[in-house]
Design goal:
Helix content is about 80%, strand content about 0%. Helix 1 packs antiparallel against helix 2 and helix 4 packs across helix 10. It is mostly helical and about 290 residues long. It has two domains: about 55 residues; about 220 residues, MetI-like fold. The two termini are about 45 Å apart. The protein contains twelve helices and no strands. The protein is flat, with a radius of gyration of 24 Å.
């Protein structure tokens, strides 16, 4: 057997055994439990990278089909200025701006919809329809309307994030039971007091569900939108351009940056959810 492939098999068996041992441990120390919970996915990820490297080298797979992780890392380190410019254009300008606008507008409209049965019956079906529209169909129209710069990508992100936030918030505002609402009425609470003291706290899990969904949708929408027109900078622009030049290692470097940014973004939202909804059974049950 090829030396690289043999090493991959041995490394996989060793890390598999280590992870199996770790997940079966029941440490009394909370710090050790947190370290173990972090170590297991890290070891699994490192194992995948090592196996990927060994398989590419062992089978002599051409780099244009699948570059090795070491090749991608080298390209990433040597292209930091370019990758940073793309990240700033796509994530900091398009994704974050569109995410804040889309989620904010969706939340505000959800409050209005909750106050108006007409809007609830008329707008929500339209929201479900628009949510099903493919981004590849919306993006060219937004580029034509708002130009080739990041503003058109923001418009795409707003469309993709607005309706998930709207639908989830409306559902969340209806999560409080009739008994709880009747109790607020017996206290002579106003609509605003009932909203802030009862209905919004009950809706937070739904709202954060939309925020987590939108954290990935926003990044996907911005990158795909850049395929249809953008200045000579941006993650989507770089991916489409470098594929045409057969610089697959640069494509994978951009994918790695996008995956890392999206994971961190999702993680920040999840941490915020744990801080705000610490009282919810799903959060209390998952705490170590």
């Amino acid at each position: 057997m090829n030396g690289y492939l043999l090493f991959a098999v041995v490394f996989w068996l060793a890390t598999w055994g280590l992870n199996e041992w770790l997940v079966r441990q029941r440490f009394a120390n909370p710090a050790l439990r947190r370290i173990t919970n972090t170590a297991v996915p890290v070891i699994f990820g490192v194992t995948l990278l090592v196996i990927w490297e060994c398989v590419v080298r062992g089978f002599s797979i051409p780099s244009i089909l699948l570059p090795a992780p070491s090749m991608i890392w080298t390209r990433l380190i040597n292209s930091i200025p370019t990758l940073w410019a793309d990240f700033r254009q796509t994530f900091l300008k398009s994704v974050l701006t569109g995410y804040v606008l889309g989620c904010g507008l969706g939340f505000i409209v959800a409050i209005l919809v909750d106050r108006s049965p007409f809007l609830q019956k008329g707008l929500l079906p339209i929201g479900n329809f628009v949510s099903a529209l493919p981004v590849v169909g919306v993006a060219p129209i937004m580029v034509m309307w708002f130009g080739f710069d990041w503003q058109s990508k923001v418009a795409v992100v707003v469309i993709m994030t607005f309706f998930p936030m709207l639908v989830n918030t409306v559902q969340g505002l209806g999560a409080a039971s009739h008994m709880e609402r009747d109790l607020m009425r017996t206290y002579a609470a106003s609509w605003w007091q009932t909203l802030t003291k009862l209905r919004l706290p009950a809706a937070w899990p739904f709202i954060f569900n939309a925020l987590k969904i939108n954290s990935t949708l926003a990044l996907i929408g911005a990158i795909v939108a850049e395929f249809f027109g953008t200045p000579i900078v941006g993650m989507g622009f770089r991916i489409s351009t470098e594929v045409g030049r057969s610089n697959v290692d640069m494509v994978w470097a951009e994918i790695a940056v996008a995956a890392l940014a999206g994971s961190i973004f999702y993680g920040v939202v999840a941490l915020a959810e744990r801080a705000v909804t610490f009282w919810h059974p799903s959060v209390r049950g998952g705490q170590a």
